[in-house]
Amino acid sequence: MIDTARAHRPPVAKIGDEDLERLLLIRHFELTLLKLFEQGALNGTTHTCLGQEHIPVALSALLREEDFVFSNHRGHGHFLARYADPHGLLAEIMGREGALCGGVGGSQHIYHERFLSTGVQGESLPVAVGVALRLKRTTPGALACAYIGDGTFGEGAVYEALNMAQLWRAPLLVVVENNGIAQSTPTSAQMSGTIAARAEAFGVRHHRIATVDLAHIRDEMGPLVAAVRQTSAPLVAEFVTRRIGPHSKGDDARPEQERLQAELNGWHRAYGEAFPERFARIDARQRELVARVAAEVAARPAVTRGRA
Amino acid sequence: MSRAERISDNLNRALHQVMEDDPSVHVLGEDIVDPYGGAFKITKGLSTRYGSRVRSTPLSEGGIVGVGAGLALAGDKAIVEIMFGDFAGLAFDQLLNFASKSTMMYGRRVEIPLVVRCPTGGGRGYGPTHSQSLQKHFIGIPGLSVFEMSPFHDARELLPHLLSLGEPCLLFEDKVLYTRRTYRGGEVDDLFVFDLVGPPPYTARVRLDDGSPPDCTLIAPGGVAHRALSAMRALLLEDEITCQLLVPARLYPFDPGPLLPLLGGTRHVCVAEESTAGGTWGGEVAHHLHRHLWDSLPRPVSVVCSAPDVVPTALHLERDVLVQDTAIRQAVLEALA
User: Fold this and answer.
1) Which residue ranges does the record assign to the Dehydrogenase E1 component domain (chain A) (predicted)?
2) Which of A75, B33, B118, B194 pairs as cysteine with B47 (C-beta 3.0–4.6 A)?
3) Total domain count for chain A?
4) A252/B55: higher pLDDT
5) Is B130 one of the catalytic residues?
6) A193 is in which domain, residue-wise?
7) Do B108 and A101 touch (CB under 8 A)?
8) pLDDT for B78-121, tens place per residue?
9) Protein fold of B192-336
10) CA distance A151 to chain B (A)
11) What CATH number corresponds to the domain at position A238?
12) Predicted ipTM?
C-alpha cells in the first residue's frame, strides 16, 4: 500500500532555492517547537503545520504587499511564508524580547504589518470581508486572503461571510487547508456534503487542488487569484493536504499507518527524492539556521509588558 | 423657545453629522436604507445622502459586526445597527473574541473604531426576545466600552466621542426614549433642573433648583431616567424626600470618581436598571461606591432591577415585570424608613 502510493505520486517540477529554503525553514521551525515543548521550554500550546508548508509557500508568490492575510491557530507557516522573521515569531511564542506582539498573543494571535491571526474558528472571515471591502475602495487590485481549515466549516460565521462576500463583491480569497481532520475528528465525521457544494450554494467560485507541486499550484492559482483582484469576486481555494504532525502536541489519535502515508505523499519526500543533493544541502542549512535562532531567542530576556 | 427635538431625531441627526464630518464613517445594519430607514427610523435619510457608505445587510448580526470590525481595523470607522439589542447575542463572539481582544492582544494598541448601536429594553410590547436589557452581559470586558443614550445627553456629542475612542463601543438606546424629547438648557420640568458633570461624555445630574443637598441619590442609565424622575417627583411631593438623579452616559468602564463629590451628605444611594438582577451594571456601581464610600455611607447601596422573569408581551403583564417608578420609590422609602 505504501509503495503504490509512491508510484502514484506525480513528479514535482523544478523548484527554486528560495522556495526550498522557505519550505524547510517552516519545517525545521515547527520541528523545533515540538522539541522545545518536550523540553518544557514553551508555555501553553501550539499547533504546527507539518505537512502543509507548501500551501502558504506556493501562495506567497501570488500575494502582494498590499494584500491582507488572515491566519488561524495553525499559522506559523502562513507567517513565515510571508515574512522571513523566525526570530520575531519564536520570541513571540517563547515570550522573549523581540516578540512580534509583546508575548501577549503567542502562537495563534499575531498581528504584523498586513498579517493577522486569531484564535476562534471562523471569526476572521467576516472581518476579512470588511477589510476586503475597504481594500476594494482604497487599493483596487488588493485582496484579503483568509486561511481556514475543513473544521472551520462547522462555524456559521463562514456562511455569513461567504454570503456577504459574494453579495457585495469583496475581493476575498478563502484558502481552505483541508487536511481531513479537525483536531481528532475526521472530516467525514463532521462535515456533510462538500466544501465545493457549500461554496456553490453562495455562487462563490471554488477550486480544488490536491498537488504538493509548487509550480503546479501557482500555475493553477495564478489566473484565479488574478480574477479575484480584477473582478472583486471571492474565491474558495480548497487544498487537499495532510497534517503529518499532531493537532497541537502529542495528541495525534490517528493510526501510525495513516500518518506515515501522509508523510510519504508529502512535499518533503517528493522534493527530497527529485532533487536529493540540493535538498540535503538546503535542509542542513535551514536546520542549522533554526537551531541558531532557537538558541539566540532562548538566551534573550523575558519580554516585559507595558500596559496600554 | 422651540420645542426640543425627539431623541430619535437627535440620534438621526447625529448619524448624519458624523457621516458628513468624516468620510471614513460607514454604517451597516439590517433594513437601514431608505425608504424604510431602519426599524426605528434612526438611519433615515443616510443612504439617500451617503450612498454606498450605508449598507443594508443580510440577517447576520455576527457577520456584520465582523465586517464592521474589519472596516475599522483597515482604516475606516464603522457604525453597526443591531435591529433589536437582543440580537447582539448573535454578535457576542465578534465583540468578545475579536474586536475587544484585537485592541489589546497584539502587544500594542490596535485601533478599532467600531460603534455597535443596540435599540434596547421593554415597554413597547415586543415580547420576551425583543425587549431585554442586555447591558450586563457586556460589562467587564476590557477593550469593550459600554454606553447608554439618555434624554440629557446630545447624540451629536456622544457619537463623535465614541468614534474618537478608537475601540469597540456598544451604544444602548432604550427604545422607550425614541419618541420622547431631549432635555436641553438645563431645564427638566417645573421642579427639576439638570447639568452635565465630569469629563465627556458626562454624567447628567438632575436636582431641585434650590441647591440644597439631597436626602437621596438615584443612579440610573438613560433608559430608566424617566422612571427615576417620576419616582423623584413622588418622593418629594408625597414623602418629602429630596433626591438627585445621576445618569452617566458611560456604563463601562465605570469611573466613580466624578460622582463621589456629589454624594457627600446623601443618606441613601439607589441604583435602578431595567435588566434582571444578577451580575448587573447596578451591582458594579454599588461595588465601586461601597469601596470608595464605605466609611461615609449610612447604609448599603440598593439596586433595583426588573423581576427575574421573561418580558411578557401583554401590556399589563409587561408592566408587572419591568422596573417601574413605584419600585424605585419603594426601595428608597424602605432604605430610609
Assistant:
1) 22-259
2) B33
3) 1
4) B55
5) yes
6) 16-298
7) yes
8) 999 999 999 999 999 999 999 999 999 999 999 999 999 999 99
9) Rossmann fold (3.40.50)
10) 18
11) 3.40.50.970
12) 0.95
